[in-house]
């Protein structure tokens, strides 16, 4: 251990010395001071010094260098991280490309708009796995989540020395999602933009959505003072800003927590939650040291949970005044079966118009050309369907993998395809071939895997990813390390030796650091510390290296491993058999079994109320009439909610207690909504102009049957995401589908690829939009039996659920 610390200090002196030699010493020391320990261990000349050199080179030649305040430059230009993406040398690789793009710009604003157009031509929005890919990987893949799009846009702006910060709403309260975006500093202050979404400043699609949010946060690298009232929390290496007031008019929430005698209780955990994906999930967790806290929150209903040990309490806060004061009394925690409305703020229609209108047709053509270059071009040469899938999913990384594959012998090619078949698409895009041959060899030579069922090998041994850790090869490193340490240990005792070694040699540190990746096994081993979940990933990785099936538990607070049956290990208790009991769930609505239309996470969730609400990760066993979950002993809560067109939720909660006494616990969950709880205004934002729609060939018989109508702009993330949520429901829709689109041919091609070929698609011109009543885009309407069943507008990620509900 002392040797390792000495080497790390020696290396840090070396990399900082190189930075000073290159003229970026003070910048390097700033980055080093506030970087995580794992980043310090990973910094090298390429991802540290060369990046800072690139910023220095561009800073000396951009025309706005003299107008940037120094504190903005340090906190919003220099940081090498945006969030938890892998370290990379993006600034160095793209410094000249991006400088050439903006060198003739007359202002920061002009440069920002031009770079956002460039980002648009490189990528589009698509949901991806919930760990961050690098900016280079996003370009190579051609798409990413909003967070990954923001990472690319921010790094592109910082490359040409424009101050920019990462802003996010942890969870939207009015739909099933969250969002991240970008704030850019220009000559007249901070403005918001959507990444790779060419719009005017402060006119991104979430302009209205952000006015309805509960919380808008910004994590700033380093210790930052912020403007008056902005700082929500000062952490050791980063500062959290509450920017909610920049987007909406918040209310002040004052919380006081007392015991049953009315005495304030210190060090209480407090969670501020909104409804999202069928559960109350925290937008902010805090520890109230003196039992008191103040928070500026957007004007939406907030569920408060206070916990300290076994004591707890909760309250649903409805912000009807500018200041809401609440006193929570801690007692034995209890939540009854209940149903209630959770309301969200309504905002008036925005009538302001932007002043910047990009040439979207030209940008789309450029993007399509770029996307074609990412496709694997030799499909006709590949007979192996598994290999072809790998190369297609690798997108722009196909070149590296194809060259590697072509240089292998026949047997190694088979092993290559087999091993890479265990990789997810995101990891294939970021996969490096350096070390790949050795990794395949170690996987192939697992001598103990022969006694393990092949199904377990395919699920819990061969896959390289355990959880959401930063991707990296680990088998060769772990095999060399632990085959020496545990030499001669019988395999049935091997897991116990691993647990014992890890407990003695790896320190668990659960301190929150925003600018830190979720460590992989090798990184945790290198610095000999990690969060509890990171250490569990190390344990699982060691066991998989030696052919023992291993995984994290559904709540990520234990390692489960297979030794002729699943066993469980946590730092709180010794190894024990995993005792889980079947729970049979049946969902009914108005007396009808609707289980086949109910999906875990999207329609219902299982939650444990620990120190914070924890939504558990499950994949139920599904049949048409029931679903099976296997749960350990304990108290759980089933959550289900129906969203109306404004995003309000009618929530239902049912408690389940597993005592282990029954073979199967039968649970019937009634998801129906009492008719008295539904108003027409809960379902219909506006009434469509049916006479105008008849001009497009929709006749009275269609209206008396079923017609689904969409008004969309497919260059906008909000339209794409909303329609994507309904694709499966539309494939089985028995009525007429009518779509009015700003870009009809693009939409037609998209739907055809999804197998939806019967839709009538029309051009949504500006004139038609006015005739329809200046509708909000996107908008979605279902007409059934001659009546408007629902009409929703804006981001609607429960569109498919609405269609199925009323079908």
Question: Ranges with pLDDT <50 over ≥5 residues?
Answer: 1-10
Helix-strand makeup class: alpha+beta
Q: How many E-type strands?
A: 37
Counting H and I runs of at least 4 residues, what is the number of helices? 28
Strand order of the largest sheet: 5-4-3-6-8-7
What is the averaged pLDDT score?
91
Shape: globular
Helix content: 25-40%
Q: Per DSSP, what share of the residues sits in E-state strands of 2 or more residues?
A: 25-35%
- What is the rounded distance between the termini? 64 Å
Our Rg estimate from Cα atoms comes to 27 Å
Report the major sheet: 6 strands, antiparallel
Task: List its traits.
33% helix; disordered N terminus; six-stranded antiparallel β-sheet; five-stranded antiparallel β-sheet; 807 residues; alpha+beta
Describe the structure.
With 807 residues, the protein is an alpha+beta fold. The chain contains 28 helices and 37 strands. It has a 6-stranded antiparallel β-sheet. The protein has a 5-stranded antiparallel β-sheet with strand order 11-10-13-14-16, with no helix packed on it. Helix 1 (2-21) packs parallel to helix 4 (45-59) and helix 4 (45-59) packs parallel to helix 6 (90-102). It is globular. Mean pLDDT is 91; it is low at 1-10.
Question: Nutshell version of this structure?
Answer:
It contains 28 helices and 37 strands. The longest helix is centred in the first third of the chain and has 20 residues, at 2-21.
Helix-strand layout with pairing:
Layout: H1 2-21, H2 25-34, H3 37-42, H4 45-59, H5 70-76, H6 90-102, H7 108-122, E1 124-125, H8 135-141, E2 143-144, H9 146-159, E3 164-169, E4 179-186, E5 189-193, H10 206-209, E6 217-221, E7 231-234, E8 238-242, E9 251-258, E10 268-275, E11 280-288, E12 292-297, E13 302-308, E14 311-317, E15 323-329, E16 331-332, E17 338-342, H11 360-374, H12 385-393, H13 398-406, H14 410-420, H15 425-430, H16 436-444, H17 454-460, H18 475-485, H19 494-505, E18 507-508, H20 521-527, E19 529-530, H21 532-545, E20 550-552, E21 559-562, E22 566-570, E23 573-577, E24 580-589, E25 592-593, E26 604-609, E27 613-615, E28 621-622, E29 627-632, E30 634-643, E31 649-658, E32 665-670, H22 690-694, H23 700-704, E33 706-712, H24 717-724, H25 727-731, E34 736-741, H26 744-753, E35 760-763, H27 766-771, E36 779-784, E37 787-793, H28 799-806
Parallel strand pairs: 1-2, 9-15, 18-19, 24-32, 33-34, 34-35
Antiparallel strand pairs: 3-4, 3-6, 4-5, 6-8, 7-8, 9-12, 10-11, 10-13, 13-14, 14-16, 17-31, 20-21, 21-22, 22-23, 24-25, 24-29, 26-27, 26-30, 28-29, 30-31, 33-36, 36-37
